[in-house]
Amino acid sequence: MDLIKSVYDISEEFMNLKVPNRLHVNISEEKLLELSETMKEEGIVNFYSEEPQEVIKDEDVELKIILRELIASSINYCYWYGHNDIRPMGANSNSMYELVDAAMKITIFPDGVPTKHDLKEIVNCLIEMLSINRYPLLEARKRHLLEVADNGYQFSKYLQEGFAEDYNIFERLVGDFQGFASDIFLKRASLFFIQLHRQLGWFGLLMKELFVPADYQVPKMLTYFKVLSFSNQLQFKIRESKLIEKGSLMECQIRAATIIACKKLCDLTGWTIADIDTWLWTKRKLPKTEKFHLTRTSDY
Fold it and tell me: How far is CA 257 from the centre of its chain?
């Protein structure tokens, strides 16, 4: 089974429902074309800086980067309990990465090479830090981290030993780690490979096929550029910061439309999905952007 194709297929199914008054999200082909022209005019944006990243060739550094992103991607979701502005201890993705880095520094020498045993210590240290910092959905985060502790070292070495361009590598990640598999749109699995691509330059073939990590910020920006529009009912929920249930038709259509629209942007610009995702994500703080939808979920 082609997992990447399955995500595109299920996205199309959500957007092709024939039941009246059940389509909460629409895609504007006209605005897609306009946005693609804007993107081409401005050019590809580097995720980390204005200067292109050098491809890393140090094997020890490579292994640290892979393990760091595998750990982070396994728990990179939902940083609030209710309203997104109310976060005990200020939890967010930046502070989560800081905790991952702190756990790695505490358990291994700063310049040392992690071992399989070190990975288990890193995970146990991080679980304690996440608990002290009161991250929401902690039980799911712990479960996902323990999966990484069991299989993460072997998977990371597999990537490092020359299998980064294996066509089935996406299926292997989802098969080895059930925490990545549970999301119908496989957001965090997609993000893991995109993050490594940004830093290591790997997965060139995969970047041409992969779907966008559909979460909060990308659909927010697609609505800002009027590529996506919402039903009155959905628009009201977003503007009033009402929680939208995980797995509901509204939530799934937001994410499905995001995946379809970004695939079309790839086709119109000739860019990879990493380029599209980076461009949209770096625009997220533009003035007059509207609120993003709120869903308590371990998927994003």
Answer: 16
Do residues 294 and 244 lie in contact, with contact meaning Cβ atoms separated by under 8 Å?
yes
Q: How many Cα atoms occupy the beta-carbon half-sphere of 92 within 13 Å?
A: 5
With 0.90 as the threshold, say if the pTM is over it. yes
Residue 14: exposure state from Cβ atoms within 10 A (0-12, 13-18, ≥19): buried
Q: At what angle do helices 138-158 and 59-75 cross, to 10 degrees?
A: 150
Look at residues 272, 293, 273 and name the one whose alpha carbon lies nearest to residue 212: 273
Question: Per-domain residue ranges for the chain?
Answer: 3-48+210-281, 59-205
Residue 227 token pair:
């590529």
Reported as a single tens digit per residue, the pLDDT across 172-209 is: 999 999 999 999 999 999 999 999 999 999 998 899 99
Render pLDDT for 235-259 as a digit per residue (tens, 0 to 9).
999 999 999 999 999 999 999 999 9
DSSP 26: E
Q: How far apart are CA 296 and CA 182, in angstroms?
A: 15
